[in-house]
Amino acid sequence: MPKRASDRVELLQGTLDMLVLRTLLPGPAHGHEIAKHIQRSTDDVLQVEHGSLYPALHRLERKGWIAGRWSLARDRNREFKYYRLTPAGKRQLAREESRWKQLATAIGRIMWPAQEA
Amino acid sequence: MTRWFRRQDDDLDREIEAHLAAEAEDQLEAGGDPAAARRAARRAFGNPALVKEDLRSVWRSRPVEAFWQDARFGLRMLRRAPLFTLFAITSLTLGLGAAGAVFALFDKIVWRDLPVRDPGRLVVGSHARPGGGFNYSMPYPQYAAMRERNTTLEGLFAVTPFGRISVTAGADSDVVEGLYAGGDYYATLGLGPSIGRLLTAEDDRTANLVAVISRSRRADQRHTVHDRRRRSGRLRRRRSRATDGHHDPDAHARSLGRGSAALESGVRDLGVRDGAASPWRDDRAGPAGVPPRLPAGR
């Protein structure tokens, strides 16, 4: 069940792209699947407003990191635009991941200095 | 471009529609009636219109959009301050108009309307070092070498200022600007004399100074009556003082009229001895301005 609004965390600026790319790593997915996957994997902590996903998808497509193609869904009798990760997208994902790790480590050192020592 | 946007729009509409349907199906499975499921799907999606707006800014290049926003903002501000706008537009109009008018005048007088054959093909020779300014005069030997080896130009000649001289014809006398010119001067400019003869390339070789009296176009009207007398009169050269009140700037040799006449005057009358005053000898490095003429079709 969805958590209460106060328990949800706003997505950090710029992290949605990384999450989308990571979600597409195992294989192609359409917008609805991506939104559901992000929500489910984080136990509904990360609430992606579904609508905000599409500008991100189109932006990523424009940059050539993902490619979209219309095809029939396996589990529904309906066509969806399936996005898949391009080689350039994989490289971008690696870049963003390492940047995120750096950021998280840096913040961790300030927040929990004892653990570092 | 518009069609491309429409295709993108249709694509997005289909995507949103599919998304809402899928979400509604999921909500329905979780329980509830179809109408409530659709409402929940819409709630989860957010505002489709906002999403589309957001997407258009992704498709369209942002700088273009921003430019139009700035332009509209500027127009609004101008409308809000009419007095400032009036002054700004007036001064801009006057400034641009004046610059345009001056250019048009200059273009007509200096470049297109020279009283010579095909003035559009006359150019000015100059040389420059990288980083340095243009130099419009060069040593005579350099000019002589250029003239000898010229293959690209229809003709080229050298000129250098001579200073003011007074010309006396009978009772009439005038102060004019003099100009030393090489023998190719008139042939290259394409001018002919109305009486007598003009300088020719042959005169360069004989090393005799030849005087050519030419009238400017404006001086033309004033002096028509005395013309014939002047042409047959004796020529006397006298350095005029700068305070001489009779100086006629129009009589500059640049403005060679149709009625140019040549007088092969005695060199003594010019006050110089056998070619000694010529600024150019092959062994002397006197300065020479070189306006060459391009061949037709350049």
Strand portion of chain B: 5-15%
Decide which structural class fits the backbone of chain A.
Answer: alpha+beta
Coarse morphology of chain B: elongated
Helix content of chain B: 40-55%
Keywords:
heterodimer; A: 117 residues; alpha+beta; three-stranded antiparallel beta sheet; 5 helices; 3 strands; B: 298 residues; two-stranded antiparallel sheet; 10 helices; elongated
What does this protein structure show overall?
The complex is a heterodimer of chains A (117) and B (298). Chain A has 117 residues and is α+β, with helices and mostly antiparallel strands. Chain A has five helices and three strands. Chain A has a three-stranded antiparallel sheet. Chain A is globular and about 55 Å long. Chain A starts with 14 loop residues before the first helix and ends with a helix. Chain B has 298 residues and is α+β, with helices and mostly antiparallel strands. In chain B, helix 1 packs across helix 2 and helix 1 (2-29) packs antiparallel against helix 3. The longest helix of chain B has 31 residues, at 82-112. The chains are: A alpha+beta (117), B alpha+beta (298). The interface between A and B is medium-sized, with 21 and 23 residues.
Task: Give a short synopsis of this structure.
The complex is a heterodimer of chains A (117) and B (298). Chain A is 53% helix and 14% strand.
